[in-house]
Amino acid sequence: MAFWNRKKSDFISLNLNDPVEPEPEAKPAPAPQVAPVVEAPKVVAPEPVKSEPIISTPVIPAPVSVAPVAPAPVVEARPVLPPPVAPPPAPNLNEEEEQKGFFLRFKKAVAKTRENFTERIEDVIKGKKQIDADTLEELEEILIGADIGVQTALDIIEDVRKQVDRQTLKEVGELKAVIKQHLIDILNKATRARGVASETAVPDDVRPYVMMVVGVNGVGKTTTIGKLAQRIKAENNSVVICAADTFRAAAADQLEIWAKRADVPLIQQKQGTDPAAVLFDSLKAAKARNADVLIVDTAGRLHNKQNLMAELEKMKRVAQKEVPGAPHEVLLVVDAVTGQNGLSQAREFLKAAPVTGLVLTKLDGTAKGGIAVAIAKELNLPIRYCGIGEQADDLVVFDPQVYVDGLFE
Ligand SMILES: Nc1nc2c(ncn2[C@@H]2O[C@H](COP(=O)(O)OP(=O)(O)OP(=O)(O)O)[C@@H](O)[C@H]2O)c(=O)[nH]1
Ligand SMILES: [Mg+2]
């Protein structure tokens, strides 16, 4: 399963910009990994943006060597490890294996939640012959404890109660499956509500695909961007990162480390520059290189909602002028560890930003991973990706079925 999927064939396109397939020579030299071709972007301020001479520093890393694909974190039970020889790209060969590895890693990330959740459910139903009021009450407590949201927990148990009354549910052993189905339904519903904004819905000739990453301080925006850049690039797409968090000086430094690690250019300016101006430069730079994807880091401050809204609105306008439909995706990053608290912050954020999907980070760091359900339900947005650790490849595409299976198996 590819991480990043843009399918030319899915779209009707006039093909005006398509390189002619059989003549590789004719292709508009896809920006080489070496020396960036970004001419210092001209300062054509997008808006009444105040911007001094731009010191756009595309950070182009030195290592021309084989980019070391971040080592896959210990995956349990991989049958035979290949010898330590650089493996060939092997596109589909290991798909099944990869899928299995993905599930295992995900399962490992939600291990604490599973203990807190499924194992407790099992304790409750163990040895019971029939579903009585006490059983249901205990289950309700467990669901609430896993942070799936009080109302959601009440609703699920209420439905179970009705099924028991109607005698359509009699077996204690069926309880787990019923709860599981409820969770999957909630997650799927959030996905269907608005559809998932994703790269698969944007024709390949619209370049770059622009992703804006927003969220409160410290939730994991920059880390997620680093991971996304690495993953997307690993599948042979060219990526540019825009450091539009000009609020904190350290923000760009941190992003620079990630950009170097992923070996992708970073467009930045000095602290305090209008984020829309940095975005404008980045769009120009990405277009000059014919980049596939532009990922935009933003500041996480929320104390002044009015400002934030105006800032994001302006960035959106700048993006739209340069690339049709941009930003194609606005990802709100939510920290799973902050639980219900993070959820209310996210709710505030939604009032200021045109969010299309969610990234749930630090799922590995909480025993209350049920928050994914609460978040999807209450924000009514699909979870696109999940952060399951601090390393570059600790980011997975969120799959409701895999997530719920991971909680229960
Ligand atoms: N365990 C774990 N830690 C994570 C994950 N994602 C991010 N972190 C950690 O969370 C901390 C904050 O991450 P940042 O990426 O700096 O967060 P940010 O949203 O960019 O923060 P600001 O720029 O200050 O708003 C860092 O220590 C990351 O290593 C994850 O999925 N799992
Ligand atoms: Mg940051």
Structural write-up:
With 409 residues, the protein is an alpha/beta fold. The protein has helices spanning 95-109, 111-125, 133-145, 150-165, 175-194, 221-234, 249-262, 275-288, 305-322, 339-352, 371-379, 400-408, and strands at 209-214, 239-243, 266-267, 293-297, 329-335, 357-361, 383-387, 395-397. An 8-stranded mixed β-sheet has the order 3-2-4-1-5-6-7-8, sandwiched between helices. Helix 7 (249-262) links the parallel strand 2 (239-243) and strand 3. The chain is elongated, with a radius of gyration of 23 Å. The site of guanosine-5'-triphosphate has 21 residues, from helix 6 and helix 7.
Q: Please state the average pLDDT score.
A: 79
Regarding quaternary structure, what we see is: single chain
- How would you classify the helix and strand content by structural class? alpha/beta
N- and C-termini, Cα separation: 22 Å
Q: Give the strand content.
A: 5-15%
| Adjacency order of strands in the biggest sheet | 3-2-4-1-5-6-7-8
How many beta strands in the DSSP annotation?
A: 8
Question: Cα-atom Rg, whole angstroms?
Answer: 23 Å
Attached small molecules: guanosine-5'-triphosphate, magnesium ion
Topology as a string of helices (H) and strands (E): HHHHHEHEHEHEHEHEHEEH
| Share of helical residues | 40-55%
Our count of helices gives 12
pLDDT under 50 segments (min length 5)?
8-91
| Shape field | elongated
Largest sheet: 8 strands, mixed
Protein traits:
9% strand, 409 residues, binds guanosine-5'-triphosphate, 8-stranded mixed sheet, binds magnesium ion, 12 helices, alpha/beta, 8 strands
